[in-house]
Amino acid sequence: MTEEKRPKLVNEVALLVDNRNVGGSWHVATLHAPRIARTCLPGQFVHLRIPGMTEHMLRRPFTIFDADTTRGDIDFLYGIQGFGTDHLSKLEPGAAFECEGPTGNGWSVPEDIKSALLVGDGTGTAALYLLAKQLIKNDVKVHLVMGGRTKHTIMDTARKFDDLLDGPVDVCTTNGTFGFSGDCTERAGDLLKDHSFDYIACSGPRAITSKVADLAKQANTPCQVWLGSHMGCGVGACLGCVTDTTRGRVRVCVDGPIFDAEEVIW
Amino acid sequence: MVQTKNQVNQDTQTIEPQYSSTQVQMAVDVAGLHMKNPVTDAAGTFAAGREYSQFVSLEKLGAVTTKSVASEPWEGNVPPRIAEIDSGCINCIGVQNPGMKALRAGDLAWLETQNVPIILSVAGHSVDEYKGVVEYMNDDDKINAFEINISCPNISTGGMSLGTDPNEAGKCIRAVRDLTNKTLIVKLTPNVTDITVIAKACVDAGADALSLINSPKGMVIDAYTRKPKLSRVEGGMSGPAVKPIALRDVWETHKAVDVPLIGIGGIRSGIDAVEFMLAGATAVAVGSANFVNPHATLDVIEGIKQYCIDQGVSDVNDLIGGLIC
Ligand SMILES: Cc1cc2nc3c(=O)[nH]c(=O)nc-3n(C[C@H](O)[C@H](O)[C@H](O)COP(=O)(O)OP(=O)(O)OC[C@H]3O[C@@H](n4cnc5c(N)ncnc54)[C@H](O)[C@@H]3O)c2cc1C
Ligand SMILES: Cc1cc2nc3c(=O)[nH]c(=O)nc-3n(C[C@H](O)[C@H](O)[C@H](O)COP(=O)(O)O)c2cc1C
Ligand code: FES
To answer: Is A25 close to ligand 1, i.e. is its CB under 6 Å away?
Structure first.
């Protein structure tokens, strides 16, 4: 998505509508952020100023998991990592955030594709939900492989995808408590032995996205990956978040977070 | 005290700062650089203003200070290059910049349409490289001032190594002084034993004004991975955590030299800015606060004005060096 065609970046006051634990340390938060909800594209994120974080001053980035355009709400899926996400998990509905977004480029799916393989690991899977929605709307057959450590954390998210995709998604757990025993790249590798897809999208930690990028290359299939990075400004001004690509050292926050797998220097 | 009455537009819930209209004389003069209010952004936190223009009407700022630019493109340090610290952040960007030609053809050309004074921040590895940028940019009438960054902690040659030695600093500033009649600002590092020694050397060499501080050096470690959090191991700190260091450096420098100062370091409110002015700054620059609050520059302007109204100060210049001690 070229910068000119993207929805305008806004900083809106967003009230917390819901903040529920969905297993383990995973939570889904709902924010009332109508301008962002109504304009965001699959793969974009919000940069949140979480209330009560004065000493931990930087904003925290979270992928827009789902958006309800009628209500003007966005959901994001998060796991507790450190101070900010722990503090966030304790906030009650009504808490007021400053929510900057929708940020980043979003996925750009090649035209006229018939099938897509989506591979998500951990909370990174959130970046694939709106993409799956869009693909289904365009009559693309979607196969989702979702990986996580335990059944406990990922089932709620897996069910949400089940409902969308009208059938059970391919779940992998590294501790073998549910579905395929192993990580999502192993499952994706097995799948690619007997199936071909027109497009592959992968979101998760770099160790996962780089493996899937390799698999896609071997299968000669166009592939896009989501890349994370520690951020300062989240608007493209500080150059804190860069990653190396064939285009040079570019900003993850506005030139990404979605990259063609081929252009990433791993 | 309410600095900014951020009103929430009920339909859109977008934050639109609403500012008071009572008159305070807000204009300041930084050695020929006329600013309609004392507030600019700190180099490297605001790029050339384009990104933040989505939130801030740039013509409301006293000036826009650009990201430091060198004669050739620099790719900066490898990531990770930013991390959070208590009340601030630390970075090792290493002055990634597209080089003076690409800047001039691109974002600088855009900034020149925004009706705001421009301070061009200049980086280099050597005196010749600083001279190269000043020479190339000097004929651009829309640039009002050069800020010579001899204080970047994140590059191995030039940058801070020039800014920590009074002789080297003096040579560099004399060399660029000979090339330009524009307002010449020198940005100082706090990573020295006595900042006033460097300040005097720069003023003796022809600096019209000084800006301070650039980032103090620091380091962050992840105990669990046993690795530094920044690729370059060390970095430069910014944000409220460095404000007391910056205030003291401004105060000491104010007592030592007789040129206008631009105070920088941890400013996020009008009151912070007023503190710098009381310590001797004529103007201030807002840096990492922009990352947290994209309207920070405007909030600081309004906060200074509100302070003046509350305190019965009719001209902001009356604050400069007004510390009682
Ligand atoms: C574009 C983008 C989208 C993201 N989307 C999600 C999501 O949907 N769900 C989710 O659970 N996580 C997501 N993350 C990661 C999430 O931002 C971090 O887990 C969170 O910032 C950690 O904050 P903390 O205060 O709990 O951790 P701390 O470790 O206390 O944070 C300290 C600093 O490091 C930064 N930081 C720490 N871990 C990460 C990380 N993994 N990535 C980037 N910055 C980090 C923080 O933002 C903060 O500035 C996303 C990251 C990016 C870059
Ligand atoms: C991400 C980042 C990049 C910076 N880049 C530059 C730069 O290119 N040139 C420069 O003179 N200072 C640079 N600085 C230093 C700031 O201009 C400022 O001196 C410092 O951050 C202290 O101000 P603050 O606490 O308001 O951020 C940078 C600071 C940050 C945080
Ligand atoms: S976070 Fe500042 S440029 Fe990306």
So the answer is: no
What's at B133, amino acid-wise? V
B242 reaches A (C-beta below 8 A): no
Q: Which two tokens stand for residue B192?
A: 């020295």
Tell me how far apart the alpha carbons of residues B177 and B111 are, in angstroms, rounded to a whole number. Answer: 25
Closest by CA position to A23, among listed A152, A184, A205, A203: A152
A128 and A152 share a domain? yes
> Considering its fold, how many domains does chain A have in total?
2
ipTM here: 0.96
Q: With cut-offs at 50, 70 and 90, classify the pLDDT of residue B16.
A: low
Q: In chain B, what are the domain boundaries?
A: 6-319
Residue ranges of alpha helices (H) inside chain B are: 100-105, 107-111, 127-137, 160-163, 166-177, 195-204, 243-256, 270-278, 289-292, 296-311
Residue ranges of chain A with per-residue pLDDT less than 50: none
Is B152 labeled as catalytic in the residue annotation? Answer: yes
Coil, strand, or helix at residue A86? Answer: helix
Amino acid sitting at position A161: F
Q: For the domain B6-319, what is the CATH superfamily, name and number?
A: Aldolase class I (3.20.20.70)
- Residues facing residue A143 across a β-bridge: A117
How close does chain A come to B145, measured CA to CA in Å? 21
Q: Which helix (H) or strand (E) holds B9?
A: none
Helix (H) or strand (E) holding A249: strand A248-250
